[in-house]
Amino acid sequence: MTQQPTTVADAAPDSWRPSRTVAVILAGGTGTRLGLGIPKQLLKIAGKPIIEHTLAVFEAAPEIDEIIVLMAAGHVADAERIVEQAGFRKVTKVVEGGESRNATTRLALDTIGPADCNILFHDAVRPLVSGRIVRECVNALWTYAAVDVAIPSADTIIEVDADDCITGIPVRSRLRRGQTPQAFRSGTIREAYRRAEGDPDFAATDDCGVVLRYLPGTPIKVIDGADENIKVTHPVDVHLADKLFQLAAAQSHQLADHRGYTEELAGRTIVVFGGSYGIGHELAELATRFGARVFPVSRSATGTHVERAEDVEAALRTAYEATGRIDHVVVTAGILEKGALAEMDEETIDRLIRVNVVGPVTVARRALPYLQQTRGHLLLYTSSSYTRGRARYALYSATKAGLVNLTQALADEWGEFGVRVNCVNPERTATPMRTRAFGEEPAGTLLSAEAVAQASLDVLLSDLTGQVIDVRRSADDPAREVRAAVVPAQPGGPADGTGTAAAGAEQHAW
């Protein structure tokens, strides 16, 4: 939206002609409250540094012409490296921030220069800001000289005195919780700070507060924020933001019709370890119908043991030689040995660990060279028992927790190669394996293997990495099996039972 500048800083709405719209990303936090050794904006969430998620929103916003980053002291090079690796073209400068929020704003204004422009100030640690919020902020500047973002307060707010006794309870309907971005016509925010310089008691925690105090006649428009536009400040915020990213990313890749899946999957190669039946078989069948070249392998069908490196390499080589590429590798192979740990023999323990842990590790190691070529995706499977070990499932629970940690670690290690790694956590699923292990169960209490396969396909087509994603029955219609609900994994999830095998059964847990 680059336009000709005007010499009037705060022209009437119909004559305001900003030269450009600049997003200023305030990244001066140090992470003290999170107990980190690095600034919180560099902490990884959903497989990427928080600041990278934030910058991506403004990079993608057509209303934004330029981005300037005000980075924490000593970490400018870190931010520059993120910008370069992500290919953010709108970022023109990364400079060191000031000692306070207000000092950082002044530095940003100096960096932007004197031309009339729209300026949006946004906290780097609000990575879930939406394009809708950015758009509405910029649009509002055609009418207002200052714009804030806020949401209604869900809690009653109380005022207290020095002794922590209530002195007042404001009417909640008129209260809002402030967020960012905060947007201004450049002349307005510059004039507010100019006047503030003459106040020896000047102190403010946000820029709209500076305008409110020093330009009291200036209306500040409030647009609706969003509950998910949280600020990552405390340890619980890291967990919440991570889960919100999982939900948003997974749902955004649920395609509307078969044509969309065919367009996405045609020409891709998928290797499914554990693809003889259950979820692995359904995933192979589904992807094949959408045009993918699928190679299902298993111990029963192809004599492939996931814990044997030579078997894994042979399966991958066969797929590669046939199609010239491998885009996705899926590992559904696993076993469940029930019984008290003290009563298990060494052979049983060794078999469980080798299939459930050594197997996925072996597949991962052998698959990486192929996935690097396509910037592909490795998909593993866990169960809700990873959040809390259960009696008579001790080793199984431990191996599933291990797969979660393996997923997260590999996502970090392989991020530089563009390879994504995720882990699906299905609710109890109706498979022949589960029926043999647990007997007949009431109709409508289990997911179908096809529904889990469909949700798994959505994950494969997403940009997620390093995530554990629950797949559950629809809350609106629990018996519905057309599409499973893909939601962020939560501790204490549904009871284990993802179609796993009883002791001595074949090595396909799903």
UniProtKB/TrEMBL annotation:
GO terms for biological process: isopentenyl diphosphate biosynthetic process, methylerythritol 4-phosphate pathway. InterPro entries: CDP-ribitol_syn, IspD, IspD/TarI, IspD/TarI_cytidylyltransf_bact, NAD(P)-bd_dom_sf, Nucleotide-diphossugar_trans, Sc_DH/Rdtase_CS, SDR_fam. It is an enzyme of class 2 (transferase). Pfam families: adh_short, IspD. The keyword Transferase applies. Belongs to the IspD/TarI cytidylyltransferase family. IspD subfamily. Belongs to the short-chain dehydrogenases/reductases (SDR) family. This is 2-C-methyl-D-erythritol 4-phosphate cytidylyltransferase. It comes from Micromonospora peucetia. The gene is ispD.
